[in-house]
Design brief:
150 residues, 1 helix, mainly beta
């Protein structure tokens, strides 16, 4: 009987740690930089009007609030080779890996709105994104809307 109780407690602990999720907080106004870069918003249906949860300017660290703490993350972009020779198209995938000492984020982005080749004033791409967030407090998957450009 004692073995059964120990097994039950062990299973409860494993389940509790498996469902632990970090709390993703919206960025505060003072956290946000404005210029060329990327921003991620929730809920995705609200687009740019949603709460901004991840943001960076080109060549700068990304910012994200997790469990009430502001993190600055190094951004690495993994672009398909095809995009070296042609403009981005609807359906193209771009992946961003973001890392900080206590946090890692992987953003898998699928282009949903791109610039028309004839529109020289257009400098942005909109994405449907899935963020996988790993923090000390656990892991979370978040659906978001994102935009990158100027």
């Amino acid at each position: 009987m004692m073995r059964l109780i120990k097994l039950f407690i062990a299973l409860l602990l494993i389940h509790a740690s498996a469902v632990a999720q970090p709390k993703i907080n919206p960025l505060q106004q003072r956290d946000i930089d404005y210029g060329c870069g990327c921003s991620f918003h929730i809920p995705p249906a609200r687009g740019a009007k949603g709460q901004q949860i991840l943001q960076w300017e080109l060549d700068a660290p990304a910012k994200m609030r997790v469990d009430g703490e502001l993190h600055q993350l190094k951004v690495t972009e993994i672009r398909p080779r095809a995009l070296d020779s042609r403009p981005e198209r609807i359906g193209d995938k771009t992946i961003f890996n973001l890392t900080a000492p206590a946090l890692s984020v992987r953003a898998v982005c699928t282009a949903v709105e791109v610039c028309k080749p004839s529109d020289e004033s257009c400098e942005s791409v909109s994405y449907r994104a899935v963020l996988s967030v790993r923090a000390k407090s656990g892991t979370a998957k978040i659906n978001a809307w994102a935009v990158c450009g100027c």
